[in-house]
Every structure is written in C-alpha cells, then in structure tokens.
Write a structure and sequence with these properties.
The chain is an alpha+beta fold. Helix content is about 30%, strand content about 35%.
Length: about 350
C-alpha cells in the first residue's frame, strides 16, 4: 500500500515539474520576444533620429564612402574634381582626423533640420535633412540628407612657355583651358619682328575642390620651375637655369654692357659695340645715332659687378640686371659712378645679342 502511494506521488511531482518547465519556457520566449521588439524599436528610433543620421553620414565619409555626400550636394565628378580629388577634399576639410568631428543641430526650417559640422571646433560644413515620408511599422519616419555643403574654392591661372605641358595634380591641363589673354615680356617689344619674342600660353582652371599643385615640363620633358603668387593665384612656369648656363649669360651680359658703358665715353667704337647688339630692333638704331662727345685722355675700369633678376624664358631668350661701379679717371681725378642696367637678350646663330636696355 505504501509502495503504491509513493509511485502515485512521484507521478504528480513529475507532471508538476513538466508544467513548471513549460510555463517557464513560455515566459522566457515571451521575454526574448519582448526584448527583441524593444531592441528593434530602439534601433528604429535611433535610425530615425536626425542626429544619428548625420553621424552615420560622417562615418561614411571616414570610411571613404562618398556616394551620399556626392548625391546630397548635387556635386558631379569632372576631369580635375574626380573621386580621388573628392577624397582629398574630404580629408582636408575634416583635417584628416575624424575623432574631432562634431555635429550640432543649428536650427529647424519647417520640416528641414539643419546641422553644422565642426572639425576641431571649427565649422567646416552644413548638412540639411528632410523627412523621407516613409513611415516604418512603428509609424516613425526617416530622414534624407537633402544638402551637404561642398565648396569649390580654388582656381588658378598658369603661364607657361608655349611648347610646355602643364599639369594640375598630375592631370594634364589640355588646350581647351588656354585663354585669349596674352602674356608678353615688354622688353622684347623693342624687336622689329614681334614673332621673335618668347611665346607663352595662359591657362585658367576654375572651380577646383583643392588647392592646385601645378607642375610643368618643357617640350623636351625637362621639369620647369613653378612659382606661385598666392595673392593672384597665378603660377609661373619657367625653365631651370643650370650653373653652366648662368655663367654663360653672365659673361654675355657683362661683355655687352661693358662695351656699351665704354661706348658712352668714346672708349669703344660703334662698330665694336654693334657686334653685341641685335640689329633689327629700336635699340640698335638709337645707339647708332648716339651723340657721345669726345673725351680728353682718360682711363676707366668696371668694378664690383653684381647680377640679379636673371630670368630664362627659353633657350633663346633671357633678361637680367647688372650693376657695377664705373671708375672714370682723368689724371689724378677719379669719378666713380654706380650704374645698373636691366638687359634683354636674344640668341642668334648661337650668339647672345643685346635687344635693349630698359
């Protein structure tokens, strides 16, 4: 009898345990479902929070996913402003340190929400969001980035020898960017044949995302020197001057100018001077009729010679300034004069000839 009671009692306990287990399992499933719904709700809320949308936009820029920024700004890639340039623009704009980026709501305009974006406490961009009009299962509406400020701040004018090639960030600036503007070296206007003056092309490229890095090569592939005037955003491309070339033109300038200086004091004849002057120019005709009066017996010397502002335009043209002390001596009397000349030269048949003094 006792044995029968114990068996029946065990059956009741076993059934009760199963019921408790099932009930607990149902409760657990309910909790999981509830937590999952809550999680989904919170996630949906975060996804539809405009601040979170802006932060995700910033994260996409950090991950170099520029599609949203391009679409929102209406920006279109072009020859110079390609995806690589856009990436450089983003990096420069955000100072290449996304850890210091902050977005702050700046105002609401009707349905629009505006955010300012700061890099290291400096405002670098503005983003505007609008509702996407698509309610999810919770009734919450999302946001689209309507505008993302993209500024094309840079332009550049490039002056280079006519036969040279010019580049912006390693992209060749094609002839379509050549303007009608003329760049001339005024000193060469003394030439009768203006076609013999050095020739230049003037390029202009506008609406660049980034500050342009200009390079240039001569017709034979030699890299040219590029100097940039930041105030006018003008890049000047000129040939390099080797030490050997510089010594050659210093000698040419000194020889011709010493001849000219001595011609003014009748220490050199016109025929002697004319061998160093280009014939078909206004300067040649002027010195031919130069009235240099006879001087009493004297001696002279040229001392303290200095050169500056040497500019090579190509293999056949250059300008340079020379200064020296011209010592004119008559007996025991010495008359030193500090003189300087700006000179312009052209090469003819392998010889440097003086075009003008200006």
């Amino acid at each position: 009898m006792a044995e029968h009671y114990r068996t029946k009692s065990r059956r009741k306990i076993s059934i009760f345990s199963i019921i408790i287990l099932v009930f607990s399992f149902i409760i657990l499933i309910g909790i999981v479902i509830t937590l999952n719904c809550l999680w989904n709700y919170l996630e949906a809320y975060e996804n539809h929070n405009p601040t979170n949308v802006v932060n995700k936009y910033i994260n996409s820029l950090e991950d170099k996913d520029y599609s949203k920024a391009v679409a929102a700004s209406g920006f279109k890639y072009d020859y110079f402003n390609d995806e690589k340039a856009f990436g450089k623009y983003i990096s420069n704009t955000f100072q290449n340190d996304f850890s210091k980026i902050k977005s702050l709501k700046s105002g609401i305009d009707g349905e629009k929400v505006n955010y300012n974006i700061y890099a290291d406490n400096k405002k670098v961009s503005t983003v505007t969001l609008i509702p996407d009009k698509k309610a999810d299962k919770y009734g919450m509406k999302g946001w689209d980035i309507k505008t993302a400020e993209i500024k094309k701040l840079y332009s550049v004018k490039i002056i280079a020898p006519e036969a040279a090639k010019v580049f912006i960030d390693d992209k060749e600036v094609t002839p379509e960017y050549i303007t009608s503007e003329k760049y001339e070296i005024k000193a060469y206007s003394a030439l009768d044949n203006k076609d013999l003056a050095p020739k230049f092309s003037v390029y202009e490229v506008k609406d660049l995302l980034n500050k342009p890095i200009v390079t240039s090569n001569s017709s034979n592939g030699e890299a040219l020197l590029v100097s940039v005037d930041e105030k006018t955003s003008t890049a000047m491309c000129m040939p390099k001057m080797s030490e050997e070339w510089t010594e050659e033109i210093k000698s040419a300038v000194q020889t011709a100018i010493f001849k000219y200086a001595s011609y003014t004091t009748t220490d050199t004849t016109f025929n002697d001077l004319s061998a160093y002057v280009y014939k078909d120019c206004e300067f040649f005709r002027k010195i031919k009729d130069f009235e240099n009066k006879w001087q009493i017996t004297h001696t002279y010397s040229c001392d303290n010679v200095k050169f500056k502002d040497i500019v090579k335009y190509d293999d056949e043209h250059f300008t340079a300034s020379i200064s020296f002390t011209y010592n004119y001596k008559r007996g025991k009397t010495e008359q030193p004069s500090d003189v300087s000349y700006n000179t312009c030269f052209i090469k003819e048949n392998g010889k440097w000839l003086l075009v003008t003094i200006y």
